[in-house]
Amino acid sequence: MMPRICALAGLLFSFALFTSVAQAEDSAVANAKARVEAARKVYEGRWARLPVDLNWRFDIDKDYQWSRRWLEAEREVSDKKADQIAAAEGHLDRMKKEEAYVKDQVSSGVGSPVDLSAAKFYRLEAEHILAQIRKK
After folding, report:
1. Residues 87/46, Cβ–Cβ less than 8 Å
2. I want to staple 126 with a disulfide (CB 3.0 to 4.6 A). Which of 19, 41, 95, 118 is the partner?
3. CA-based nearest residue to 62, from 39, 96, 36
4. What is the pLDDT of residue 6?
5. Is residue 101 within 8 Å of 59, Cβ to Cβ?
6. Cβ contacts of residue 86 below 8 Å, gap of 6+?
7. Can you list the domains of the chain with their CATH numbers?
8. DSSP label at 110?
9. Which secondary structure element, helix H or strand E, spans residue 63, and what is its range?
């Protein structure tokens, strides 16, 4: 009888531990999904203000930081390679958009060449991140 009780207790403990781990993983994914949404809203909100708010100052570094936060949160949502690649491609697309915007600003005489160098760096970094994920 004692071996059966021990086996049953071990089984129940294993189930409780598995359930606890699964709940923690679900909670972490839910947290990451919420961060994806928050970062997306901030990033897109910053861009939405550009054409309508004359007092809004474009800030390549803040845009990069929010895009990068968006990328990292998306990468925490799923460990599937296709999802990792999609997250990195999204970040790269955003950095390309930033670089194109800054190029236009510099050509029209209102942008800073320093911001253009930063935009180029951020785009190159995004390309590197994508390449590293694809190699895995």
Report:
1. no
2. 95
3. 39
4. 57
5. no
6. 74
7. 36-135 (1.20.1440)
8. -
9. helix 60-77
Q: How far apart are CA 28 and CA 117, in angstroms?
A: 36
Instruction: For 107-136, write each residue's pLDDT tens digit.
Output: 999 889 999 999 999 999 999 999 999 998
Query: What distance in Å separates the CA atoms of residue 102 and residue 120, rounded to the nearest whole number?
Result: 10
Tokens of 113: 């060449």
Those residues whose C-beta lies under 8 Å from the C-beta of residue 85, and which sit 6 or more positions away, are: 130, 133, 134
Can you tell me whether residue 135 is helix, strand or coil? Answer: helix
Which of 78, 80, 71, 77 has its CA nearest to residue 130?
71
Is the dihedral angle over the CA atoms 71, 76, 80, 83 positive or is it negative?
negative
Signed CA dihedral, 72, 76, 77, 83: sign only: positive
Is residue 34 classed as helix, strand or coil in its secondary structure?
helix
Which tokens go with 20?
């606890």
